[in-house]
Amino acid sequence: MATKPHPHERIWRTVLAVPEGYVASYGQIADLAGLPGRARMVGKALGFAPDDLQVPWYRIVRSDGRIAFPAGSEYAERQKQQLLEEGVVVLKNRIKMNEFGWKPDLAELLMKLEF
DNA sequence: CGACTGACGCCGA
DNA sequence: CTCGGCGCCAGTC
């Protein structure tokens, strides 16, 4: 049944639910992970994410669709590259949320991540 | 305990 | 569309 893992773990598992070819915002992940108001914590958690978990950190962007890292920075470039590789269009360091924003199906979501 | 710091979010200028 | 300011939350000093 529903267990109650450490916040970081819940965040990782939620991010793992974001499908290839789509992106989600930090705040959206925080909400889905049951941590409303903690968008900033999502960024931190992604930084701590164990490599073996294969967390798709690059699918997380700001609510307005912009990549959180400074445009042109090493991290921003790598994130853009990862996204482009799976078909997500990135222009001017930003993604069109109306087109690539992930709108999770509630039923499937509950099934997929029982905390 | 207060000040400062972010992979944030929202709103007004 | 870009900035600036402010709220927010968990850490760190």
From TrEMBL:
<keyword id="KW-0227">DNA damage</keyword>
<keyword id="KW-0808">Transferase</keyword>
<dbReference type="InterPro" id="IPR036388">
    <property type="entry name" value="WH-like_DNA-bd_sf"/>
</dbReference>
<dbReference type="GO" id="GO:0008168">
    <property type="term" value="F:methyltransferase activity"/>
</dbReference>
<dbReference type="InterPro" id="IPR036217">
    <property type="entry name" value="MethylDNA_cys_MeTrfase_DNAb"/>
</dbReference>
<protein>
    <submittedName>
        <fullName>Cysteine methyltransferase</fullName>
    </submittedName>
</protein>
<dbReference type="Pfam" id="PF01035">
    <property type="entry name" value="DNA_binding_1"/>
</dbReference>
<feature type="domain" description="Methylated-DNA-[protein]-cysteine S-methyltransferase DNA binding">
    <location>
        <begin position="8"/>
        <end position="88"/>
    </location>
</feature>
<keyword id="KW-0489">Methyltransferase</keyword>
<dbReference type="GO" id="GO:0006281">
    <property type="term" value="P:DNA repair"/>
</dbReference>
<dbReference type="InterPro" id="IPR014048">
    <property type="entry name" value="MethylDNA_cys_MeTrfase_DNA-bd"/>
</dbReference>
<dbReference type="InterPro" id="IPR052520">
    <property type="entry name" value="ATL_DNA_repair"/>
</dbReference>
<dbReference type="GO" id="GO:0032259">
    <property type="term" value="P:methylation"/>
</dbReference>
